[in-house]
Task: structure prediction
Amino acid sequence: MGKDVVIEVRNLNVNRSGALVIKDANFEVLKGDYVGIVGPNGGGKTTLLLAILGQIPKASGTIRLFGKSVESFDEWERVAFVPQDAINFDANFPLSVRELVSLGRLGRKKIGRRLGKIDWDEVDSALEFMGLSEVADRRIGELSGGQKQRMFVAMALVRDPDVIILDEPVAGIDAVTQEKFYQKMSDLNQKRGITIMMVSHDLSAVFCRMSKVICVNKEVNVAEIRPDVDIEGVLRKAYGEHFHFVFHRHECKGEFKA
Amino acid sequence: MIGAVGAAGLNGIIESAGLTGFISPSASLVELLGYQFFQNAILGGLAAGFACAWIGLFLVLRREAMIVDGVAHTAFGGVALGLLLGIDPLITALGISIVSVFGISHMKRKGLAESDSAIALMLAVGFSTGLIIISIAGGFSVDLFSYLFGSILTISRSDLLMILVLGMVIISFLTIFHKELLAITFDERGARMMGIPVNAILTMFNLIVAITITLSIKIIGIILVVALIVIPALTALQLRASFAKTITSTVLIGLASVVAGIMVSTFYNVATSGVIVFTMVLIYLVTTALARRGK
Result:
């Protein structure tokens, strides 16, 4: 029996400002997948994510989340999204890290509900998992870039989602912090079984840690990350034939998924 | 003439109520608390101070503070209409405030005008409506000015009842929905994606803003209501604390300013609304200075 399908995209076309940005996309994301979305700037990665999340209309095709059409999908608590610009918030906003993460417990089915002990336990557990317990009472504006990203993942985690979708979560963050972040996401995927979809320009991280790659440059090509798959060929379709990609799988420190 | 009732403190009230000889201008606080008008003032002031401060923090964080000034001035037209028709002016002011706040929101949402332009338009329409009604009625003497500048020391039992009921509506809304409102204020798009019914909550919030402004008119007046809503939040934000501490500080500053304003204006016989605003500004300056020194 096959794995549960989390996201199913069929014959998807998406226009933005009158131009075709996603052309005839077809792919599936299965439960437990760790998916990297790569492609050149302006290629349509964010557009694809926003279409999947029902935030922008599609021109044609179907998007199904957990078997339901995105138009009628109403279990958004199962899906957590960390947008590209999440960390660019007002640094003076009066919220502690713990307070912000607790907002992740809100949702359509919990309107007006007081947060109880279970909620706060979830918040503290997520903060601990993301290594933020020591800064839990600090104001959100006082955190470093890497801490802010982990804070938003903690906010996503307290929703107890089945899938977390992240749009360039480590953009502008130093290499060491990026590596720690990818490690945390691998832990989430492997230890908690959470399906992860992440836009990233770090091709090494994608091929060392993730199980599937979606290459987006108007056209969408998908490949399992396995030794027998011609990853370079898939990437060339997104980035262009004149690019050469050299992967040193031995540098993946034993974390290559295949 | 602005009128002793609208602008003066205890002596004005004593004289206008024919109470001269009953209350000494040097009456003690305990004596004052025995008088109905003083009890009404304190209760009404606390209700308005609490509601204004709480709603004010959200308005400041949403960068919508000036909507208060616009809607309050529009409410002037509603007050004038109420006086002309012989209806309780607070009821007509509430109706006009609701129309105004939704009008501003609609213009912003539909891209008809930026926030400041939409506020300016509503303010001008509401205020000029009031002026036309006044000229048609041949003037309303002292009554209208008591709404412009506030007359907390003369609020009646029926005014107080209305203020308390409206205050309960506001506090109930904020108690139930403040977390959702906080999530929307921090990141509206993110809140939508989390499944929070953003449009419904913002519609209710607009309604609550209109109610808050209306209940504050008798307390501090149309002209200065923006101060009661904005300054406590602005002061608390200087503390650079968590949301829980910021909202607590905001409300305490609002309540302390109103009570101090009523006390000082009563004992020194000066305009209550003016003293409330000066108290708030004083707290703001001291807080800002201490916060900067502590950096």
Remarks:
- The longest helix of chain B spans residues 157-186.
- The two ends of chain B are 48 Å apart (CA to CA).
- Chain B is about 80% helix and 0% strand.
